[in-house]
Amino acid sequence: ASDARARAREAASLEELEALMAGFEACPLRFTAKNLVFADGSPTAKVMFVGEAPGADEDRIGKPFMGRSGQLLDRMMATIGLDRSSAYVTNIVPWRPPGNRDPTPQEIAICRPFLERQIELVDPDVVVCLGSPATKTLTGTKDGILKARGRFYPYLLPTREIRALATLHPAFLLRQPVQKRQSWRDFRLLRAALDGKA
Ligand code: URA
Question: Is 110 in the pocket of ligand 1 (CB under 6 A)?
Answer without folding.
Answer: no
